[in-house]
What does this fold into?
Amino acid sequence: MSQNMDVQDLSHRSRRTTAVLACVALSGVALAGLAAPAYAGTVPSVRSGTTLAICTVVNTGTYQKAVDPGGSDAPEADTVTGTGVLNCVDASGKPLIAGTSTYAVNLTGAECTGDVTGQTITEKITWSDGTRSTVTLAKNNAVELGGVATVTDSGSISAASTRFAGSTVTSLGTADGKGCGSAQGETSQSDVYLQTFVG
It folds into this structure.
């Protein structure tokens, strides 16, 4: 009975992961590749409750230590560092701005399959007009199955940032790890997110 419930649970998680990935991928098709003009004038001000930008984010990262080598599936503290590309539209869907980022993810219990909620992310974005944003995110919900995780994040942008300072950020997407189940273990990760900035 317990084995049957485990199989059903894994099947349910797999279907949920596939559904989220499909939604994010469709959003990426709609938004990615938009020509984002650089701002020559005043950076938009932050107003309470205003959607400032909706961005597709594509990240590529590397683990400091391989996760679950040989299929051990034992949670262990780890760090992922990487780079990302952002393409953003405004609340009406018009092209707004693009950017590149560097990021670091601190994982308290990295593993190929399991609940990896509780991670924190620091993201430093350089926008195409030269402005910058420093984002701090907490992974509120992250469930990983065979290296693929559905993730929701929330956080804020530092007051010292020169774009979107003091605004809040939410993210929905998937993280796809490479190497789970192998002798080497999971060593890299690619992410696709839909990230919303609200003032």
About this structure: Confidence is low (pLDDT under 50) at residues 1-47. The longest strand covers residues 51-67. Residues 2-198 form one domain. DSSP finds one helix and nine strands in the chain.
